[in-house]
Amino acid sequence: MPPPADRPLVGGRPGAALVALALLAVAGAVAIALMPGPGSQRAQFVPMPPIPPVPDAAPRASATTSAAPSATRPARPPIEPVADESEQVTAPRTRAPSTGTGTSTPKPSSKPPVAGFVAGTTIGLSPAGDPGSRVRHHDFRGRVDRIDARSPAGDRADSRFRVRRGAADARCVSFEAVNLPGFFLRHRNFELRLERFDGTPLFAADSTFCPASRGGGIYALRSVNYPDRYISRYQSSLYLAPIATGFTVRPPL
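Predicted structure:
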């Protein structure tokens, strides 16, 4: 009979048993290696003190910037408003005629400002070189139209003006509409208009014109409160402009 060691293992798989024993041995060795020794200690986490926050540079910059105007820069005084150009021009020129009126009072009223413009007379005005046209008012605006003895009565009446001593300067003249008593030619926004006299110094100055002879019975009509501007014709309209239109005094139609 053969010895017992030569008998085959149950199941006929001697290699599987050996593998299982080897795995158990490895697991035991790993467990022994991982066991802490008598003098070993587990690692512990030590909490670190909190780091103080670094101040943000932006607040300091804004604080310095905001404080600069109030602390180091003195407050600027308010800028004075610039006066309107119309006030600068109108105010002194409105006062000037009143002074001229005062100084002209002692002068005799019988002496006309210039020949052809006699206070109290009714005249017509024609542009020089255009005797068939007349200065007239139409829709309360000054203009120049073709008017002669055959024109309608209303057009001829609109071309008649009564010469008055200058409302702002007695050495000059004002022109009153014959068919609308109390209405005078005046300039407004440099345009010639017909308006009722309101008694104000501004209206008096705007309605006063000083004839300046150009020779040969031709006159330029200068504004008393805008001495560098004259009544000037542009097509059929009348304006104040630096270039004068010459006019001749004509008998009324």
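Summary: DSSP finds five helices and twelve strands in the chain.
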